[in-house]
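Morning, I've got a small favour to ask if you have a moment. It would help a lot if you went through both lines with me. I owe you a coffee for this, so here goes:
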Amino acid sequence: MGILPLVLASILLPGWSRAIGSVGPGLLAIVLAFGFLWGLGSVTFAIGIDAVGIALGYAIIMGTITAVGSVIPVVRRWSTVGSSARTAVFIGIGVCIVGVAVCGYAGMMRERDAGKGLRAAGKMSFVSGLLWCILCGILSAGNNLGFDFAERIAIEVQHIGGRPMFASLARWLVVYWGGYLAVLTVCGAKMIRTGSWRNYRGPGSMFDASMAIIMGILHFTSQLTYGMGTDYIGPLGTSVGFAILLSGSLLIANFFGFLTGEWKTASRGAARVLYGGLAILVLAVLVLGYSNTLLPDAAPKPKLAAQSQVTRS
């Protein structure tokens, strides 16, 4: 997440640093701030999950991220989006949140079947844990909001000759910088204070590091392809596309959960609830896809041409 984006940017987007510098300090500060919030969300994620358990905590966090991260981009473009498209988008986002909640409830049923209950090993009160999860969802939405506000960076990259397909990479770089600052500040300070940084040299640390590296590569690749997809979706790419991304991630995660046997010990009732939640997520994707067809310029086209026309007008 730190090295790979810079390497790819130097290969695919020559002059990316000049494009980022040309947008001005005001916009960069906004994007960095959203990235910083995203980084804080990564820290609060562990706190909330430790308090309420992964099934309930993940459902609350993902539902909040979907609501905040998908709705705000629509509100930003409120006057340019027709009422029918807005209605369809909000319905799709609402269905997505319901699907996330149902999948979370299925996870809670599975934990009860396994005798784990609703609480993890944390000592925090349940209500406080819920509040931490909600806060985590709000902060973590900064990832998509920072990317949304950084749209002008991609336009500048294309103006200096960058390929439109990879222009979103420059937007992610600034968001990542803000996120790194938050994580290194909070987690780094605690590791220095407690001496836990020594764990990176302990037994099994090489295996853990390799898993973390693979996770980082996969996560960055998913965000890069998401950024490419927003160009093809159109004006609501960071809203419709973001909700589809989260819905799809839950669908794929649960698919692999079945393959790895996570649901072998679950009751039939829990499995049926999960199937219902996954079906709702599929419905959400269909509704969101339909909402995008209600936009006048839903056909795929390079963003540079569209944005240049807006700039000239």
